[in-house]
């Protein structure tokens, strides 16, 4: 069992999302940084799809009521265990009674805590993700509060000891040092309505710097900067949107749709962020900036394939080490 002694700004149970239900108007939700979530799970000995705790900016204080094995990946929110700094992107054995806490955000906005075995929480429409606005999924459909207790699923005999001996760390080549830079270059493919924008807007989207607005949330990041405009006003039929779709409403300020995005949208889409760069946006804090860089669909697909191959290499390495200890 884990007990939340202090909830932090927003800590919620998330997994890779509620897929397969968007055609019914159900929001996918899920983690904002799928890469960090997946790596944390692998390091903790879980399936990549298992639920983690997504921690935003100001982290919680968590007491462990039993021995556990955890991994923390994503933004560096200064995690510590019993007052001692905790190395991120690696597994850690945690003794009963230990307290995990967080300090000042150093880089990035969200951390993911994976616990071996994951959480004993019922799935809602095949997912444990929390959709806060509708109050479904996760822990009672809400962010965690002071005093909440989370049950973890029991581990097979000997698994905890094997994980303790394994103590795997993600290799440096999998974690670029500047992954969560304060002004990242985000690769974006031209969207379905890219050619409906005037020539100046088509140029400025890839040249200007945009700043994350304070009115941003898990649904989408509103960007401030160069205002974009259509060549001529047109009525568009609403169509499906995706994680990373970049819509431009009438005020000309683009919105990057994120984990809690709506299922369809009628604003023109000037671009689609490459999947591998979605974490770069999700880890930005309000007031931080980004620049877009044009990328082809083919190159975006190649980057995705390369990332999946790297994750697979880590997965195989962890599995081989685990077999040595079992």
Descriptive terms for the model:
seven-stranded mixed barrel, Cyclophilin, 326 residues, alpha+beta, 2 domains
Distance between the termini: 25 Å
Count of helix runs:
5
Count of distinct structural domains: 2
Please mark out the parts with pLDDT under 50 across 5 or more consecutive residues, or reply none. Answer: none
Number of β-strand runs: 20
What order do the SSEs take from the amino end to the carboxyl end, as H and E?
EEHEEEEEEEEEHEHEEEEEEEHEH
Q: How many whole angstroms does the radius of gyration measure?
A: 20 Å
Provide an overview of this structure:
The structure is a single chain. By secondary structure, the protein is of the alpha+beta class. It folds into two domains: 2-175, no CATH class; 185-295, Beta Barrel (Cyclophilin), CATH 2.40.100.10. The protein is built from five helices and 20 strands. A seven-stranded mixed β-barrel has the order 12-19-16-17-14-13-20. A hairpin with a 7-residue loop joins β13 (209-212) and β14 (220-224). The longest helix has 28 residues, at 297-324. The protein is globular and about 65 Å long. The two termini are 25 Å apart.
Q: What is this structure, in a nutshell?
A:
With 326 residues, the protein is α+β, with helices and mostly antiparallel strands.
What's the structural blueprint in terms of helices and strands?
Elements: E1 2-6, E2 10-14, H1 34-43, E3 52-56, E4 61-64, E5 68-76, E6 79-81, E7 84-85, E8 91-94, E9 99-102, E10 107-115, E11 149-150, H2 159-166, E12 185-190, H3 199-204, E13 209-212, E14 220-224, E15 239-240, E16 245-247, E17 255-257, E18 264-265, E19 269-273, H4 278-282, E20 289-294, H5 297-324
Parallel strand pairs: 12-20
Antiparallel strand pairs: 1-4, 1-11, 2-3, 3-10, 4-9, 5-8, 5-10, 6-7, 6-9, 12-19, 13-14, 13-20, 14-17, 15-18, 16-17, 16-19
């Amino acid at each position: 069992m884990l007990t939340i002694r202090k909830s932090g700004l927003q800590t919620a149970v998330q997994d890779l999302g509620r897929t397969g239900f968007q055609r019914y108007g159900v929001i996918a939700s899920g983690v904002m940084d799928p890469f960090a979530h997946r790596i944390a799970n692998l390091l903790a000995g879980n399936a990549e799809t298992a639920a983690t705790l997504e921690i935003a900016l100001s982290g919680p204080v968590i007491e462990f009521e039993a021995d556990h094995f955890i991994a923390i990946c994503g933004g560096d929110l200064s995690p510590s265990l019993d007052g001692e700094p905790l190395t991120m992107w690696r597994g850690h054995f945690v003794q009963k009674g230990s307290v995990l806490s967080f300090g000042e955000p150093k880089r990035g906005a969200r951390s993911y805590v994976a616990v071996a075995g994951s959480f004993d929480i019922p799935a809602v429409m095949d997912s444990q993700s929390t959709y806060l606005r509708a109050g479904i999924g996760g822990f009672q459909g809400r962010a965690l509060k002071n005093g909440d207790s989370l049950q973890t699923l029991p581990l097979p005999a000997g698994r905890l000891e094997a994980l303790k001996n394994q103590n795997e760390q993600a290799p440096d080549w999998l974690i670029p040092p500047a992954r969560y830079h304060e002004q990242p270059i985000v690769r974006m493919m031209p969207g379905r309505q890219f050619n409906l924008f005037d020539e100046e807007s088509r140029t400025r989207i890839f040249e200007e710097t945009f700043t994350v607005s304070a009115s941003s949330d898990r649904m989408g990041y509103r960007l401030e900067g160069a205002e974009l405009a259509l060549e001529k006003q047109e009525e568009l039929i609403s169509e499906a949107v995706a994680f990373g779709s970049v819509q431009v409403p009438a005020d000309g300020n683009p919105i990057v749709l994120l984990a809690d995005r709506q299922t369809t949208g009628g604003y023109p889409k000037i671009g689609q962020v490459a999947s591998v760069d979605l974490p770069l946006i999700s880890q930005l804090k309000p007031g931080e900036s980004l620049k877009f860089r044009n990328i082809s669909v083919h190159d975006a697909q190649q980057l995705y394939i390369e990332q999946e191959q790297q994750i697979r290499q880590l997965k195989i390495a962890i599995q081989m080490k685990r077999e040595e200890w079992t």
